[in-house]
Every structure is written in structure tokens, then in C-alpha cells.
């Protein structure tokens, strides 16, 4: 059981409660910044609970309040009628704990989709650019198993230990094409010249995140989601020179009201797309040479 570095006595006080939420086979793990080793004073504790079925929201909240107390400020969410995903969030010894419950059978389907190169991005309010289905693979890859009595989590981690080639090809193909759509686009150029900062900033964000997807896939590293992504980017071997710094300067170019800044931003975006495309092409050429 993992407990080192976690606040208070979470492993002994909380995990037994979460175990009671599960109906049938289950697995519990620590995820997020604690699992990745990048937690700080502002970090919450992410606990993943995978099961075929869980107790309804009201029962989960009642169990937490009984076990920890009313100061836990429990909030539970999710569809009680059909379990796809849900959550029970609360405070424990001064730290926010977010328990994310996910249907284990649906995770199995997601793994199969990603292994076959079928990628999806859902528009949801809690992410900046939507939820990429393959982020589930990143979650599983880095999570630290707490309880896995049925071997579910261990099997998943072994299954995705090697980055699926079909997933890599699908991500690079889709998002490099998306990144190349905007930089020379007439509507982007005209928006720059009229100083339309709301429109242009959305374009820049879209292109930047598309390039980030390509670079992660190029390195065969699972995209971990948007939070603290710059920390992970710094560790990737294959990336354009000063990639992280160039992204930071793109998304915050200075005087947002200046057309000159927007022009410079667009030119910088053109350069970054070109550099990522060249990395992909060089990698493909090297792969072809190796086959000959």
C-alpha cells in the first residue's frame, strides 16, 4: 500500500471508506501530482477508484461524514442511475481530496480504442481544450496502486507499458493537420490586422495544444492533461528548440491590444508549427531508412 508523502494518515483513514463505496471487483490508486512526484503546497490529492458499480452519491457522502466528520465538506456527484463516472470530494487534514470513480468496463473499452488508434476529444467544462480519451492511459501509466485485489490495475499498467504505435500515428496525423490549418489562414491574418484579440487568442491556444499532442506522441509519452504540462514538456527528448519557452511567449505575448504583437505572435506560431512538422518528417525519414 502506498502512503509515503500523503497528508496525515490518509491511507488508513480514507482508503477503507472508499473500499466500502465499491460494489463487486475494484481497484484503488493514487494519481495526479502525488503519483507523478510533482505535488506542492497547493496540490490536491487525487484518488482513483475503478469499479463495475459504486454506491449512490448520498450514501458516499454519508460514509465520509461518518468516518471523517462534517468538517470534511463533502460533495458527491455523478449519475446514480447509470454509473459511468462520478466523484466524492472532501477536505482531510487541511488538504483537498478528490476521489474520481470510473467504470472499469468503460476503461477497458477506452484502452482497446486507443490501442487501435481511435482517438476522441470530448467537450467538457473542466478542461481547457476538452478531454482526450487517451489521457486515461496517462492516468493509468503513472498511478500508484493502493489496493488491487482482483489484479485489474496491474493488468492495465502492464498492457500500456509500451506506447501503442496505432495511437501514436493517429495523434500525430490528426493534430499536426489541425496545427497547420490556422497559421497561414486568411481569417487568422485578417483578425490580426483588425486587432481581434479574442478570436486570435483562441486560435493560438488551439494550435499550441495541437502541437503539444504531436510532441508527446512523437516522444512516445502519454499526454498527462493540461495542468502543469510545461513541467513534463521540459523532460521530453524530441522537441523544437526552447519549445516550452516559445509556447509561453505565444500564449502571453505582452501588450494584447497591439497589432504589432499579434503579428509577431502569428509569425512565432508559424515557426513553431514548422519546427514540429520537421521533427515528425525527420523521424519518419529515419524510420524509413532503418527499414532499408
CATH class of the largest domain: Alpha Beta
Give the CA-CA distance, first to last residue. Answer: 49 Å
Strand content: 15-25%
Low-confidence stretches: none
Main β sheet profile = 6 strands, mixed
| DSSP summary: helix tally | 13
* CATH superfamily annotation of the largest domain: Beta Polymerase, domain 2
Topology, number of strands: 8
Helix content: 40-55%
Structural class: alpha+beta
Radius of gyration: 22 Å
* Topology as a string of helices (H) and strands (E): HHEHEHEEEHEEHEHHHHHHH
CATH-defined topology of the largest domain:
Beta Polymerase, domain 2
Secondary structure blueprint with pairings:
Blueprint: H1 10-13, H2 15-21, E1 22-31, H3 32-36, E2 45-54, H4 57-68, E3 75-78, E4 85-92, E5 95-103, H5 104-115, E6 121-122, E7 131-132, H6 135-142, E8 144-147, H7 152-159, H8 165-181, H9 186-193, H10 197-218, H11 229-233, H12 243-251, H13 259-291
Parallel strand pairs: 2-5
Antiparallel strand pairs: 1-2, 1-8, 3-4, 4-5, 6-7
Helix pairs in contact: 2-4, 8-10, 8-13, 9-13, 10-13, 12-13
Characterization of this structure:
By secondary structure, the protein is of the alpha+beta class. It has 2 domains: 10-159, Beta Polymerase, domain 2 (2-Layer Sandwich); 165-284, Four Helix Bundle (Hemerythrin (Met), subunit A) (Up-down Bundle). The protein is 51% helix and 17% strand. It has helices spanning 10-13, 15-21, 32-36, 57-68, 104-115, 135-142, 152-159, 165-181, 186-193, 197-218, 229-233, 243-251, 259-291; strands at 22-31, 45-54, 75-78, 85-92, 95-103, 121-122, 131-132, 144-147. A 6-stranded mixed sheet has the order 3-4-5-2-1-8, sandwiched between helices. It has a two-stranded antiparallel ribbon with strand order 6-7. Helix 8 packs antiparallel against helix 10 (197-218), helix 8 packs antiparallel against helix 13 (259-291) and helix 12 runs antiparallel to helix 13. The longest helix is centred in the C-terminal third of the chain and has 33 residues, at 259-291. The radius of gyration is 22 Å and the shape is globular. The protein starts with 9 loop residues before the first helix and ends with a helix.
